């Protein structure tokens, strides 16, 4: 009986974590999409470019302390705003960015989020 309750409790915790865990695509849409796109250059570099040049720790640092990291990386200016994300959201967006790392001239992600900027009609 106790064992069954422990198993049910563990399963409930597992499913709760899955349901409420941060989704990198959602974090991207909420915080990053205005300046970054997955595979195309926008105001900021594409996730594909970032993932090919940076480790996870550097991506996380650039999101949380862009002014300091920009100096360390040798940039004279920085346009990246500091984002105060939860640890779950920070992990989710870092992992999402790294999905776009090129491997043998192909992107790991098969279907990047559509680039709406390319689909807008000229008025």
Shape: elongated
Note the beta-strand portion.
under 5%
CATH topology: Cytochrome Bc1 Complex, Chain D, domain 2
Number of domains: 1
- Class in CATH? Mainly Alpha
**In CATH, what is the homologous superfamily?**
Cytochrome c-like domain
- Strand ordering within the main sheet: 1-2
Main beta sheet: strand number and arrangement?
A: 2 strands, antiparallel
**What is the tally of beta strands?**
2
Q: Supply the number of helical segments.
A: 7
- Named at the architecture level, the CATH assignment is Orthogonal Bundle
Brief rundown of the structure:
The chain has 123 residues and is mainly alpha-helical. The protein contains 7 helices and 2 strands, in the order ααααααββα. It has helices at residues 2-20, 24-32, 47-53, 56-64, 66-72, 87-98, 116-119, and strands at 102-103, 106-107.
List the helices and strands and how they pair.
Blueprint: H1 2-20, H2 24-32, H3 47-53, H4 56-64, H5 66-72, H6 87-98, E1 102-103, E2 106-107, H7 116-119
Antiparallel strand pairs: 1-2
């Amino acid at each position: 009986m106790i064992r069954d309750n422990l198993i049910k409790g563990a399963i409930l915790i597992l499913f709760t974590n899955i349901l409420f865990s941060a989704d990198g695509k959602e974090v991207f849409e909420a915080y990053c999409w205005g300046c970054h796109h997955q595979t195309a250059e926008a105001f900021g570099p594409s996730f594909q470019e970032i993932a090919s040049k940076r480790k996870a720790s550097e991506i996380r640092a650039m999101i949380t302390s862009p002014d300091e990291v920009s100096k360390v990386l040798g940039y004279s200016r920085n346009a990246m705003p500091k984002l105060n994300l939860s640890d779950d959201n920070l992990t989710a967006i870092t992992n999402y960015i790294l999905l776009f790392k090129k491997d043998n001239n192909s992107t790991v992600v098969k279907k990047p989020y559509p680039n709406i900027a390319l689909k807008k009609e000229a008025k």
